[in-house]
Amino acid sequence: MAIISGVVLLFLVAPESYFIERIRQVIPQWQDGGLYISRQSNLFGRFWYAEMAWGMFLDSPLIGNGYYSFRELSPIWSMSIIGDSRVVPNAHNSFLQVLALLGFLFFSWLLWRITAFLYKTRKYAHWDKAHNFLWQFSAGNTIFLFLTALFSSSLLLPYDLSLNMILLGCLVERKRENSVP
Question: What is the per-residue pLDDT across 22-55, written as a single tens digit (0 to 9) for each?
Fold first, then answer.
């Protein structure tokens, strides 16, 4: 309810705003007896980019196409999917991009390492209040990064991952301080 109220308020307060226009483009509208999504919506671009990444993955599923190759391969794949040759910097989906660039083997290893990290660091959650807070904050940030990775390249950008590294450093340092006799 709060989200709907917020969107309605944005429409009333700033109807000519760029962001309001972007929201209007994304929201499907009922026209001519069916749902219609504007072709200017970035939803189409995200679907197309995801389809390009999936095609790249299927082209080389085991080891991928190479790190940072999405931009170079995108004109070839965009021609077959969109109908014109576009240079696309990323897939706007970290999971599909990792699959396309580095293949199933690295993707499996990455998921295993992140799961192992969360599992091994859970012991810090019960150390003391400060450790509990840092662990929850770090785990929550990791989960948030995974959710946003469905719609962005957050797992591939260093500034998104740097907060997790800082939090982990704080966790380890607090553990070290508390374990010294």
Answer: 666 666 777 788 777 666 566 667 788 888 899 9
Written as one string, the DSSP assignment of 76-115 is HHHHHHTSS----S--S-HHHHHHHHHHHHHHHHHHHHHH
Whole-prediction pTM? 0.66
Q: Are strands 34-36 and 29-31 parallel, antiparallel or unpaired?
A: antiparallel
Name the phi and psi angles at 35, rounded to 5.
-75, 140
Q: Strand pairing partners for 31? A: 34
Long-range pairs, 58-61, Cβ under 8 A, ≥24? 60/103, 61/99, 61/103, 61/104
User: Rounded to an integer, what distance in angstroms lies between the CA atom of residue 18 and that of residue 26?
Assistant: 13
CA distance 66 to 86: 19
Phi and psi, residue 36, nearest 5°? -130, 130
Q: Could you tell me the two tokens for 135?
A: 């662990």
